[in-house]
Amino acid sequence: MPASTRKSAYLTGLTQGTPFLLIIVPFALLFGVVATEAGLALPEVMGFSVVVVAGAAQFSAVQLMAENAHAAVIILTALAVNMRMAMYSASLTPYLGPAPLWQRALVAYSLFDQTYAVAHARYEARPEMGVAERIAFYAGAATPLLPTWYGMTLVGALVGRSIPPEFALDFALPITFLAMVAPALRTPAHVAAAGSSVALALVFAGLPYNLGLMIAAVAGMAVGAEIERRMGAR
Amino acid sequence: MDWSIAETWAIIVALGIGTFLLRFSFLGAMGGRQLPDWLLRHLRYTPVAVLPALVAPAVAWPEATGGDPDPARLAAAFVTVAVGWWRKSVIAAICAGAATLYAMLFLLG
Predict the structure, then answer these.
(1) Do B93 and A179 make contact, defined as CB atoms within 8 angstroms?
(2) pTM of the complete model beyond 0.90
(3) What is the mean pLDDT of each run of 10 residues along chain B (109 residues)?
(4) End-to-end Cα separation, chain B, in angstroms
(5) Residue A162: Cβ within 10 Å count
(6) What is the DSSP string of B41-89?
(7) Interface predicted TM-score (ipTM)
(8) What is the DSSP secondary structure assignment for residue B33, as one 8-state letter?
(9) For residues A12 and A138, is the Cβ–Cβ distance under 8 A?
(10) Which residues of chain A lie closer than 8 angstroms to B31, CB-CB?
(11) Distance CA A71, CA A132 (A)
(12) CB nearest to B81's CB, from A71, A107, A178
């Protein structure tokens, strides 16, 4: 793999990752604000963003901490929210499996919704990419996102209590996730997977420990896969 | 919130390790081996199955309104999905969703 190819893959990754700053910036700000308002001190707020690096799980954990839930419940719930990361990991394995272990570990550390979405779309569209090129692309996509995640959490924690509730920041998370999913609804199988998953999530919303989310997600994946199999095409 | 600094850090570190292990699971253990077709077929639907389920309850019963369905938030969610699907753009979807939310909140006062 010539260095110039890796460099251009890195730059392409940078180009394709950068637009996601529009999601990362408000999302990280929001976490800083929410965590501070829940009563966490600055080092702990930053600890969440640097050590965990998973927005939705961070929000769930802080929410449950504010409710004084049992520590085991907090950890299990946040990890349940992150179960999808194992699926992302499996989904990238065919593309990145042969890369050196330290590179796969760094990919794993920075594997969240946005980096996954960018990388998976690129790898699927360009099956001819080499492994080193894929890693370079991934590094490019993560470069603007990760430091911004840390930095904007800090800004959010510092401005914290000065944002009035009229800004309805509670809804930044749903809008972000829905916006990430909608463009992916390319086939009837994708639409059916999302639709059945939403219906089940609402039906089972009352179950404890995010079990409703787990049931809905697994069932949605099964629906999508089954429809794809019956239609005999992607 | 009644958490000591040590308890808070214990939760952060446990979550960090657990999350890393979830992310590293297949990438770390599988190496260059190929996953079976049926599994890959399911994994293709991971994002569209997990993310909407994650937010569906928050859209239907937002905490900000005490759990009552809210026309502004429902409209914002609908517009976000519609614009995202139509324009195939995450950014356009977020902007349209946020604009709808603020417009509706303003109109419904």
Answers:
(1) yes
(2) no
(3) 89 97 88 73 82 86 88 96 93 92 90
(4) 32
(5) 7
(6) HHHTTHHHHHHHHHHHHHHHS-GGGTT---HHHHHHHHHHHHHHHHH--
(7) 0.82
(8) P
(9) no
(10) 97-98
(11) 41
(12) A178
